[in-house]
Amino acid sequence: MDIREFVKLSIGRWRSQRSGHNLAFSHFEEVRSTIDIVSLAGSDGSVIELCKSAGIDPAAAISPFSMSWEGRSDWDEEETMVGSCVLVPIPDRDNINQGKLLRSQGYAETIAAVGDYYFTSDGTFVLLTEYDRAAAEERIWFATDNLRFRFSSIKTSDGKGVVTASFASEIRSLSGN
Fold first, then answer.
1. CB contact burial 133-170 (16+ within 10 A = b; e otherwise)
2. What domains does the chain contain, in order, with CATH numbers?
3. pTM assigned to the model
4. Which of 27, 50, 75, 88 is the most exposed, having the fewest neighbouring CB atoms within 10 Å of its CB?
5. 5-54 pLDDT, tens digit each
């Protein structure tokens, strides 16, 4: 698995069911959402802007994509959570299996972020991102082409304490809905 294969497998509409544990508040949350992942051209204005803001040559981008989501949490079933972001992989020159991932919006903090990614020997995508007040680790792997799993944890900025942990199963929607 490399970044091109990973993005190609990820393109589509996904139904996600995520369970999250806020360890600081001893609270459990269930979120059901729809996630749309769409391929972007390297010449897309949002890709170029994100690269330039990170001081990276847009020509280094491989398989950029956008992700949008809409979901509901059992914390507040009246509120719909919506969002979107642009993601731009920048593989290392010598190794496409690792590099930087530029995000127009981060996971732990809703600001632009740059994380480090790599693939494990079993094809798991691992993304490590440090923010001002936290650090996030995300792991995504495919059980089949249409079923993937995602684990994430948010740690304190010093990396010693886990604040939240979540696990999601995501099923590709084959009907287009």
1. ebbbbbbbbbeeeeebebebbbbeeeeeeebbbbebeb
2. 3-172 (2.40.128.20)
3. 0.90
4. 27
5. 999 999 999 999 999 988 877 888 899 999 999 999 999 999 999 999 99
